[in-house]
Amino acid sequence: MASHDGRVTAVRVRDLVRRFGERTVLDGLDLDIAPGEFVALLGRSGSGKSTLLRAIAGLDYDVTGSGDLRVPREISVAFQDSRLLPWLRVLDNVVLGIPGDARERGRRALAEVGLAGRERAWPNQLSGGEQQRVALARCLVREPAVLLADEPFGSLDALTRIKMHDLLRELCARHRPAVLLVTHDVDEAVELADRIVLLEEGRIGLDVPIDLPAPRSHRDPLFQSHRDRLLLALGITEGATP
Amino acid sequence: MTHTLAPPARSTLGTPVVATTAARKRRLGPGRPIPYGRALGPLLVIAVWSTASATGWLDPRILSAPWTVVATGVELVDNGKLPDSVLTSLRRAGLGFLFGGVIGTALAIAAGLSRVGESLIDGTVQVKRAIPSLGLIPLLILWLGIGEGFKVVVIAIGVAVTIYIQTHASLTGIDNRYVELAEVVGLNRWQFVRKVVFPGALPGFFVGLRLGVTGSWLFLIVLEQINATSGIGYLMFQAQNYGQSDVIVVGLVVYGLFGFVSDALLRLAERRVLAWRRTMGG
Asked: What single Pfam family name could you report for this chain, choosing any that match (chain B) (predicted)?
């Protein structure tokens, strides 16, 4: 965690540039995320959402670019696929890489995501939603200061996704990590985030705080106005704009 | 054929006979397996062999009768010749397989995990792979003589290459997403190797082991028949000189048992170690 200009930030990105060959994907991007803040990152397909997330996660080696990135060491990443190692049992996947005996903590994390009793199962024995919950437990058990999530619910069916939203909200409220959720789903963003940022032409184009009370309802007119505004910014006109 | 001989059964109670006709319908697949069906073929061969021997149609100089073979086997066990030969042969194949396995695996790991290792090792092994191991025999005899060391080395080279090829292919085929995950959860190099690389390469390693063990028996047989003074192959070679077909058959049975038992053991180990694979696809 770093302090600048009197403000404490969990993630601080300044003037970030990332290029793939001729194409500049991120072009002088600035972004701050406060500790405990839930930020959703929206953007059109190919706008560089994943590039930004991978830069923050430190997973971009074969790209050229520059910029200043300040991030804490305790970062967890949730990928679109659950990315469980098929040859490790569920509990061993959760505590993978944690020094010392973390099995008890791992068990608690599994219980938190509703998978108590499945510690000895192989990942292939679980459903897609369950696998993604194991992946969440693997993130949480590290008590991350920052949780980066790259469309973690993208491959789940609609019903499972609703359940996962509730679970993620609950877990974030309890553990208070700073979250950067990459998504293409505007509803998901408005439902979960404290703030939504929109990636446009390599920079943050729109930065909208979402101060809706919990529980957030899709029928709330404020919810819909946020939603419409974001869709408009993404170039989609749908329904009535207020 | 049966459905042309008998008309479809009719229910006397007037209930539909769908189930009956369905059962009569011919299936395109080979149908249900016959219990112990696989043993039938070999048993039939033995039966023909016994009949031919008993009726005197089969000259014992060509092929001894099954009971002669059994009696010879018992006799060879009793006078200690067979156990000695078996131990000698097992020791050669076992040592060759062990050294070859260790070397092949070590080379595969070195080539799979570092670019320097890959540059130095992979090309070299691929060149070696193009040369049949048995083709090295003249050179190796020049260097090592025809003692036990030479035999173990020939087997080890063959096994090492086989295991290297399979293990290396499997190592380099590990999904890059898992490498990324290992970085994200902060595995160090050794943990990465232990938790991701080794388990990920195990399926290929086992393929290599099974091919390697088959290869080690093959090399053993060749080596023991061209220049040996002990072992199963030598026993058979001598029997050939004296026209003892029963001893030759005993040797073949022992080779067969070697191959069968070693493959069964490896398959058992594979099932245990790769238990996570069995759950795939439900």
From this structure: BPD_transp_1
